[in-house]
């Protein structure tokens, strides 16, 4: 939408890093290149055993029994209710250095 495109346009003149709670990748689709996703991204999957093992989704359909390179089941790369927000410290660091 126009708001996402406007934020992406700011990168042409300013040092911009977006912090978002959204998991929809609309900032990237609008052109933003530096985006921190607090709650993950629906465009990626991750190992159910190792949250650092992240893989891109291959198309829009994913088999329910798809496995990660470590052999565990893949799950959406999003934060479920009650889980810790892994990018919180990174977001606080970015916000702490903002003008």
UniProtKB/TrEMBL annotation:
Name of one Pfam family that matches: SIR2
InterPro entries associated with the record: DHS-like_NAD/FAD-binding_dom, NAD-dep_sirtuin_deacylases, Sirtuin, Ssirtuin_cat_dom
Entry's EC annotation: 2.3.1.286
Ranges of residues in domain Deacetylase sirtuin-type: 1-99
Keywords: NAD, Transferase
Enzyme class: transferase
GO molecular function: histone deacetylase activity, NAD-dependent; NAD+ binding
Range of residues in the leader sequence: none
PANTHER family assigned: NAD-DEPENDENT PROTEIN DEACYLASE, NAD-DEPENDENT PROTEIN DEACYLASE SIRTUIN-5, MITOCHONDRIAL-RELATED
Name this protein carries in UniProt: protein acetyllysine N-acetyltransferase
Organism from which the protein derives: Phocaeicola vulgatus
Upper taxonomic lineage: Bacteria, Pseudomonadati, Bacteroidota, Bacteroidia, Bacteroidales
């Amino acid at each position: 939408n126009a708001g996402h495109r406007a934020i992406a346009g700011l990168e042409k003149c300013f040092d911009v890093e977006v912090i978002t709670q959204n998991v929809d990748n609309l900032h990237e689709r609008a052109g933003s290149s530096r985006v921190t996703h607090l709650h993950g991204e629906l465009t990626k999957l991750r190992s159910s055993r190792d949250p650092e093992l992240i893989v891109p989704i291959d198309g829009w359909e994913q088999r329910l029994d798809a496995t990660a390179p470590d052999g565990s089941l893949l799950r959406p790369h999003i934060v479920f209710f009650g889980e810790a927000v892994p990018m919180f410290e990174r977001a606080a660091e970015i916000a702490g250095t903002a003008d």
